[in-house]
Amino acid sequence: MNHTGALVSARGLTKIYEGPPEHVAVGGIDFDVRRGEAFGFLGPNGAGKSTTMRMIGCVSPRSGGELTILGHDAARDRRTIKARLGSVPQDDTLDTELTVEENILIYGRYFGLRRDVIRERTDRLLEFARLTDKRASRVQDLSGGMRRRLTIARSLVNEPDLLLLDEPTTGLDPQARHLLWERLFRLKQDGVTLILTTHYMDEAEQLCDRLAVMDGGRIVAHGSPRELIERYVTREVLELRFPLDRHEQAAEKARGIGERIEVLPDRLLCYTSDGEAALEEAGRRGLDPLTALVRRSGLEDVFLTLTGRTLIE
């Protein structure tokens, strides 16, 4: 039972796929999503993000734990919950033979809406998605960015309280991604609660009020992007690049510079409160990098600290 007043609440949420061998996709996680916020699951492929989203979307039953959505139990009240959800899956499920307008009209009928209501909402949604001039175009003729915007517009036809977005911008070019971010930010301003999965750092920082970082089916950290950065990494990072034949030797020499050294295949990351002082220390140790960069810490550094590998696998 949800005692938190949250829109979505999970306690010990578990998903196990029977074997052999048995696979624990989600291993007993706790989280709450508050009304009106954008909440993100951040993690690599296989971390359990999409499985968690399928359970929230009531399309995959949980194996254990509690999951309350919009005040209802996810197992007992699936139909009631799904009527108030919007869902943007990782892969588009648009009908490519139909027009942009027809895709929204037909989807609206699944919710039992009257035709006049659907048509009025379709006009607003096409304007929202910047697709009004494409309403008579077949989906097969749209760009990838246009298809994603149409999928989001279609998911809003029932005016959902909660919108689920699984990897919403994967495969899009930078311009299309930023336009999609702008549309999602506007939705949040209008009071729609968003839950999204992503493996893009900049996307998580741009869109999410709070994040749950997942790895191996578990939540390894949670908080706002700024809280995560302050909690898990230093204020600055010194990046040093060396010729490949000197990389390992340089890594040994750099030990002890700053609070922690992360050795990546192409560079060294020195986590420190003062990047310039760390660079001076590197020089005193006889290190002569090809390039040196002092920058502020970000979410990618948090992820490397927590999981020891990059996000995109």
TrEMBL record:
One of its GO terms (molecular function) is ATP binding. It comes from the Bacteria. Pfam families: ABC_tran. SUPFAM superfamilies: P-loop containing nucleoside triphosphate hydrolases. InterPro entries: AAA+_ATPase, ABC_transporter-like_ATP-bd, ABC_transporter-like_CS, ABC_transporter_ATP-binding, P-loop_NTPase. Keywords: Antibiotic resistance, ATP-binding, Nucleotide-binding, Transport. Transmembrane segments: none annotated. It is found in: Cell membrane. GO terms for biological process: response to antibiotic. Residues 8-241 form the ABC transporter domain. Signal peptide: none annotated. Its main location: membrane. The keyword ATP-binding applies. GO terms for cellular component: plasma membrane. It is a peripheral membrane protein. Belongs to the ABC transporter superfamily. This is ABC transporter. It comes from Actinoplanes cyaneus.
